[in-house]
Amino acid sequence: MPAGVQNSSGPEQASPARDGDVRRCRPVAVWSALAVILATVATLLPFTAPRVADLLLGAPPAGRDLDFSTEIVDRDGRLLRPYATPDGRWRLKARVADVDPRFFPVLYAYEDRRYLSHGGVDIRALVRACGQFLAHLRIVSGASTLTMQVARLLEPRTERTLAAKARQALRAIQLEAALSKDEILSLYLSLAPYGGNLEGIRAASLAYFGKEPRRLSLSEIALLVALPQSPEARRPDRSAATARRARDRVLDRIAAQGIVAPEDIARAREAPVSPARIAMPVLAPHAADAAAAEKNRRPRLTIDATLQKSLQDLARERARQQGADISVAILAADHVSGEILAHVGSADYFDVRRSGQVDMTNAVRSPGSTLKPFIYGLGFEDGFLHPETLVEDRPRRYGSYAPENFDLSFQGTVSVRKALQLSLNVPAVAVLDRVGPNRLTARLAHAGGALVLPPGEIPGLAMGLGGVGIRLADLVTLYGGLARGGLSVPLAIRADATEERAPRRLLDPVASWYVGNVLLGTPPPENASGGRIAFKTGTSYGYRDAWALGFDGKRVIGVWVGRPDGAPVAGMTGRNAAAPILFDAFARLGKPLVPLAAAPKGALFATQARLPGPLQRFGSLPGAAGGLPLKILFPPHGARLDVGAGEGASDRLALKYAGGVKPVTILMDGRPLPTAGQRRTVLVPKPGPGFVRFTVMDATGASDSVVVRLP
Q1: Where does the pLDDT of residue 8 fall: very low under 50, low under 70, confident under 90, or very high at 90 and above?
Q2: CA 70 to CA 448: how far, in whole Å?
Q3: Least confident of 125-129, 367-371, 519-523
Q4: Backbone φ and ψ of 692, nearest 5°
Q5: Is position 111 annotated as part of the catalytic site?
Q6: Pairing relation of β-strands 79-83 and 90-91?
Q7: How far apart are the first and last CA of the chain?
Q8: Which of 32, 369, 415, 488 is catalytic?
């Protein structure tokens, strides 16, 4: 009950009345008599009294235009972060269903025993109050109902006059006629004062107990019932002793009425009252800030609050271990739907030294080696590479550019599988030279991973080792595409969004499966189990950015570690700084890891010695033997072929090529086809409708590919 309003359930301690007190109490007696008359009218003429009140006061305020706090909630409606109202108040909307059901019997017993049966004004309480006043010539108990308190909260007034009291009674009658009991009670739960800038039971429960009021102890219930009667005097963060005495008076009342077992009362009395006030929850603050900028008062995000808190704690802990200026960003998503499950933009939102309010999931940083899987993926897609193909890791120069490995050593001849798992630089640049930097850039951009080049620069070979910019959010999108069979889905964080997000092609299914299978075998960090997560690390030039991205069959997680200002951190690598966080993040998902998808149709399982000749080794350049470069002349790339159907139609297609060094292998969607002799025009089996890729590969490893469409 608002400050200074007596409850209707029993006497409060008061000092003997003096003459002045009697004179000051006479208006209360008059108001009580008037209220009795109004209540009687409301009881005898339930349809007439509200209309009379409407004529006298106008329509009642129903609380529909109140300014409540903006609340950002997670996928299940759990609070992520509230925002104070423009006047600085925590006013969180509450419904009866939001509160522990054991709260209400205690509230009724202490504040308004007949709340569920009266029409806004309690006649019996009024008669009793008037009788006690006449007998003692002082106020022994009041007669304010919960509905009258709501009326006062909706129309705050400082004066305590006969007119003000009569107005509250009339408004209470109007509210009872216009709203249901639960709606009135919800207004009380949303507006009751609890001290300072706290309004409503949810704000109080979060500030004093650190939790929503859905599950409360009896001690907590009694304190929340007692506080609104005198919120400033009883608030526990100012005087825990006063708050405890107020709580105990509520416990005495319900004990006398027998609505709670004596042993429960005894336990509630022993419970301490904490003098601390707890900060409001701040989960996914960067995402919440973006959502709060919209007009929606309760935007729902795809984030899982439990996982979000766990990963925020993980980022904070690991950043402190790394150093005072280090920040950590983590982004977790369901790669099947594209929904973001956790968004950790920095190690600590309120840490100024770590630039906590900068969202590093959207910052453009150098990706290091994290683009290598896509380079090899295009090589797999084009049909000139297989995970068991041998590549050369030896010194090599491209004009003035001579790539080196991270440890400045060379491994010699290795398989593509080992080259990617060890993140060797020289083989990756050689494959990128064959794939083409422009093609890689265009493919990644199409799939949702736009690369940012320095002003005036064009895509070059250095981009394969991190000479380009990209966001963590885009890398998570791309790695999610690897996990879901080569189709990336744009990330989404608004659970209430309605726009469709069509998948985008990143790689063909076989190529993406090859990449995932290789990354599944990457050696894990110390004290971690391997073979369960497909992952890749990366370290940018000068130790400025450390990355780790990984996925299982359901989720994809990306981790960035570094200084937000871009300063180097000596010795910080993706493997020692980011990979352990990635594995811990997967361990905190709270759900078993999901195996990767099975190999798609067309995947080739073979040792290096049993691969088709051109796939056994990579490293020669087109035309290295002095002949013409290998080129498919027909069909042209991107053509739509009308090959006919029905009786008499041919079941073969003509494929014509020129150049290259014999023998030449022809592949259709990555599968070798038998060829008769070494003719330059070959009849190949007509595939089914849709898109099909033809690849020709010569003895040196040179290749050319086209994609055509058949009706």
Answers
A1: very low
A2: 31
A3: 125-129
A4: -140, 140
A5: yes
A6: unpaired
A7: 76
A8: 369
